[in-house]
Amino acid sequence: IKLTNEPPQGLQAGLKRTYTWLTQDTLESFRRPEWRPLLYTVSFMHSVVQERRKFGPLGWCIPYEFNQGDWLASIQFLQNHLTTVGDDARKGPVSWETIRYMIAEIQYGGRITDDKDRYLFTTMAEVWLTPKIVQPDFIFCPRYSIPQSDDIVQHRRFIDTQIPPVDVPEVFGLHSNADISYRTKSSQLVLSTILDVQPRQASSASGGTREDVVVRYADELLRKLPPRWLPDTVKDNLKRIGDKLPLNIFMAQEVDRLQVVLDLVRDTLHQLKLAIASTIIMSPNLQEALDYLFDSRLPPSWLKVSWPAPNMGLWFADVLKRYDQLNNWLMHERPMKFWLTGFFNPQGFLTSVRQEVTRAHAREEWSLDNVETKTEVQKWEKNDLERAPSEGVYIYGLFLEGCSWDKSKQKLKEAASKEMFRELPVLYVTAVEAGAVRGAKGKGALNKYKCPLYKYPTRNDINWIFDVDLPCEEDPSHWVLRGVALLCTID
């Protein structure tokens, strides 16, 4: 028998459970005015960091298992710190910097493995663990304040009566659209589970067996599948456009990787048709491909050499788009703009851009180790471009999650209701000396939010590409709590 102790759902339930661990003696441990607000704030943060997990990547890149032990360790530290500082407020203030560091970096931060999550928790501590919480009018969010009583019964009654039973995303620092994302993903998980338990031998609703449906689907895919690139053709065209240029070398590597995908798809479909016709044995891999193709899902063997997608239709459309971009580049000339989503290794693409810019400034003794990527959002869309930049590249196909873009003022803004994603205009990417980037950041009138760019909606170190500087009027911490990020694909 396996027993688990799961945290309750909702801030009210989480605070009620936390305050069952507290006694009147705990509230009266210190006479300092910071003690009770700190106690409540740490308890509030404990429930917030647990509840943010339900929002998926918007809440945390990785869903950490924060538990009561983290809260107890934090409370024990607060007691030790206040004992060291002294119970008399006239002898000196508490060290807020020490409190923020110990709670965000040590007590809770010991579980955090992702750099972006660590920055998020640190930002949360900087916003809430401040001297402002001692003031009677302090609020975390409308309808979420700190009880002023020194009685534990009053604290529990405050949680029961003043904390809403249904939380709004704003209390977690998120936009109201985050709740839509949470409920949508919950529904998709249920539907996916239902699909997985469906019988595998049923006939198609349009008539015919599963095998008949898959054969027709395989024939359709084979008709649309692009032809192979011939090695001699690739070699000759690379020499024509410059096989020593970093971006062209990168393109050749992308061609090789897409060639592997095309060959695997073609071979699997041909063998699957033969297996269905009983010409060859239906191996476990072919049976798996048949099951997935019948459900219009990507077979696992194809996923290993390609990229994730929710269904076969979107995945195969990406195959064709990736092929067109690389084929036009190889057979004709370098594009004016690049679809970053269409690359297996976007980090390698950015490195190649930095290499080309560094070589262009060889007389100024630029080195690859001393340059940084500089980004600037343009006012025009991808179809408005007339020529490529003299230095650097234009990229498109990036989507903002958690906010929107003010095209007229060239800055971040709050997303409209039900606007889950917003496509970013063309992004100019180049390389400059490291000192020039820092100097440019200091001169701008607007703040800069370092927005992480990910290849897929799943946010982790593997899918992270680089950080894009996006102008904003608000303090960058606002967008950190919003969970704002750029995605190469929203599927």
Descriptive account of the structure:
The protein has helices spanning 11-19, 24-27, 35-51, 68-85, 96-107, 115-128, 152-162, 177-196, 210-224, 231-241, 246-276, 284-294, 300-305, 312-331, 346-360, 434-443, 476-482; strands at 139-141, 144-145, 338-339, 371-377, 393-396, 399-401, 404-406, 411-413, 421-423, 427-433, 447-454, 464-472, 485-487. With 491 residues, it is an alpha+beta fold. α9 (210-224) packs across α12 and α11 crosses α12 (284-294). The radius of gyration is 28 Å and the shape is globular.
Q: Which secondary-structure class do the elements indicate?
A: alpha+beta
Radius of gyration: 28 Å
Q: In percent, how helical is the residue content?
A: 40-55%
The CA-CA distance between the termini, in Å, is: 39 Å
Strand percentage, roughly?
A: 5-15%
Placed side by side, the strands forming the largest sheet appear as 9-6-13-11-12
